[in-house]
Specification:
single chain, about 400 residues, alpha/beta, Rossmann fold, eight-stranded mixed beta sheet, 19 strands, about 35% helix, elongated, binds cytidine-5'-monophosphate
Length: about 400
C-alpha cells in the first residue's frame, strides 16, 4: 500500500503516543508516514521513550511541538493534555510497552501519555512491541484483553528477530498496517457523522395496578451498546429506553419511558430526519386492558387479567419511514430462530434484523455477551460469533455501513 497518498488522512488530528522500547526508532518513520498521508500529528513521549529517540526527531517529523512532561514550564494544564485530547480525532499508541498497557488497563495516569489516553473519548489504536516472553506473560495478555473489551483496537505485533536476540512475536507491526488501521478506525469514527440515530432499548413495563406490571428480563445492554457505538461513530443519538439499571452512554440524548405506548409516542416524536433507527427494545406485545387506580386486593381479584395489543413500534416506524432511513430490528427467539426472524424482517418491512437466542444456555437476555445472526432484506445472512455486546454493536454497525454503501 502506498502510505504516501497525501489525502487519506486529510484533515485528521492525531494524538500519537510513543513508549520507551527499542522500536521507538521505527515510530519516527510512522509519524512521518502519517504526516505525509495528510494528518496533523501531535506526539507525546514517555520519559523512557526519550532515552531511545530525542523529542527533536519527532518534532521535526511532525512539525509540531512534542510533549513529554505533564508539568512543563510554559505550558498550561489545558494545553498539556486536555487541550490536545479535545482537538484530536483519535489516539495512536506506538511501541506500546507491557508497562504502559498495564497502566492503561488499570486507569493509572502517572505521566502525560497515560493521562491523555485515559482522558480521551475518541478511538484508540494500539501497536504493541516488546520481548516475546513479556508479550505472552499472563498479565500482559489479560491487560490487552481488557483494553480490547473496552473497544481499543490492536495492531498485532509481528514475529521475527527481536532486539533482545530472540526470534518470536513482539515486533512492532509494519508501518503500512499501522497507517491502514488508523485510516480504518478514523473512517469508522466518521461513519455516522452528522446523522441522526434513534435507538430503543430495555424492557417496557405494562402496569395492571400501581403495584404490579408485566415485563421481561431485558437488561438494555444491547441497545445501550449500540447507542454508544453510534455516538462514537459521529452520530447524534437519541436513546429511548424502558427502565434499566444502566447509565446512559456519554454524549447521547436520553429519553426514559416506562410503557410501550410511551415508547411509541417518544419514537414517533423523534423520528423526523432520522437516518438510522434501531429497535433493540424488548417491547411488551400486550398490556392489561384495564389498569386499576388502586392496588387490587386478593379477595377482589378474579385472578384473570385481560390483555390488549400494544402498538408495534418498529412496524409503525417502517410505515412512516423518513426518506433514506435504514431500519434495524431484533428478533429474540427460543426456537426456529432464523425462520421466525426472516418472517419478522419481511412482515415489519425492516432492512436488517439481528436474531438472538433466548431461553436456555447462552440466552441473550440480560447477558453481557451474545451471539447473533444478521439477516437482511435482499436475502443474505451473516452469523456473528459470541462476543461482548459492545463488540457485537460494532459488528452490527459495520454491517449497516456495508449494506448502505452497497459493498
Ligand atoms: O414481534 P417482535 O416483538 O418479536 O419483534 C421484535 C422487534 O420489533 C424488535 O426490534 C423490537 O424492538 C420491535 N418491537 C417494537 N414494538 C413492539 C414489539 C416489538 O418495536 N410492540
Amino acid at each position: 500500500m502506498d502510505t504516501r497518498d497525501s489525502s487519506r488522512l486529510n484533515g485528521a488530528t492525531l494524538l500519537v503516543g510513543v513508549c520507551g522500547g527499542i522500536a521507538a526508532y521505527k515510530c519516527a518513520g510512522i509519524v512521518s508516514a502519517l504526516r505525509q498521508a495528510g494528518a496533523d500529528v501531535h506526539v507525546i513521549m514517555t520519559e523512557s521513550a526519550t532515552r531511545f529517540v530525542t523529542p527533536l526527531t519527532f518534532q521535526a517529523l511532525s512539525n509540531n511541538d512534542v510533549h513529554t512532561d505533564m508539568f512543563a514550564a510554559g505550558s498550561t494544564w489545558d494545553i498539556a493534555h486536555i487541550g490536545l485530547v479535545r482537538r484530536s480525532d483519535m489516539a495512536l499508541l506506538l511501541n506500546a510497552t507491557a508497562n504502559t498497557l498495564a497502566k492503561l488497563a488499570h486507569g493509572i495516569a502517572d505521566n502525560l501519555l497515560t493521562t491523555a489516553i485515559l482522558a480521551t473519548r475518541r478511538p484508540v489504536v494500539i501497536a504493541p512491541a516488546m520481548n516475546t516472553a513479556m508479550l505472552e506473560a499472563a498479565p500482559t495478555q489479560a491487560n490487552i484483553a481488557a483494553l480490547q473489551a473496552r473497544g481499543m483496537e490492536f495492531v498485532e505485533p509481528g514475529a521475527g528477530f527481536l532486539a533482545c536476540g530472540e526470534i518470536g512475536s513482539g515486533r512492532l507491526a509494519d508501518e503500512d498496517d499501522i497507517v491502514a488501521a488508523v485510516q480504518r478506525v478514523l473512517a469508522r469514527s466518521r461513519q455516522l457523522a452528522g446523522r441522526r440515530v434513534v435507538v430503543t432499548a430495555g424492557p417496557t413495563r405494562e402496569f395492571a395496578d400501581p403495584a404490579r406490571f408485566l415485563s421481561n428480563p431485558s437488561s438494555g445492554r444491547m441497545g445501550y451498546a449500540l447507542a454508544a457505538e453510534a455516538a462514537a461513530r459521529g452520530a447524534q443519538v437519541t436513546l429511548i429506553s424502558g427502565p434499566t439499571e444502566l447509565r446512559p452512554p456519554a454524549g447521547v440524548e436520553f429519553v426514559g419511558v416506562t410503557s410501550a405506548r410511551e415508547m411509541h409516542n417518544a419514537v414517533l416524536e423523534h423520528l423526523p430526519g432520522v437516518a438510522l433507527f434501531i429497535g433493540a427494545a424488548a417491547v411488551a406485545d400486550f398490556r392489561p386492558e384495564l389498569v386499576a387506580a388502586h392496588k387490587v386486593k386478593k379477595d377482589e381479584a378474579d385472578a384473570t387479567l385481560r390483555l390488549t395489543r400494544n402498538p408495534d413500534i418498529i412496524a409503525d416506524v417502517a410505515a412512516a419511514r423518513p426518506p433514506g432511513c435504514f431500519i434495524v430490528g431484533f428478533a429474540a427467539e427460543s426456537e426456529d430462530i432464523e425462520k421466525h426472524a426472516r418472517e419478522k424482517l419481511e412482515r415489519k418491512h425492516l432492512d436488517l434484523i439481528v436474531a438472538n437466542r433466548i431461553g436456555g444456555n447462552g440466552s441473550a437476555f440480560g447477558a453481557s455477551d451474545a451471539e447473533a445472526v444478521l439477516l437482511w432484506s435482499s436475502g443474505g445472512r451473516k452469523p456473528l460469533a459470541r462476543a461482548p455486546k459492545a463488540a457485537l454493536a460494532g459488528a452490527i454497525l459495520d454491517h449497516v455501513d456495508a449494506l448502505r454503501s452497497g459493498h
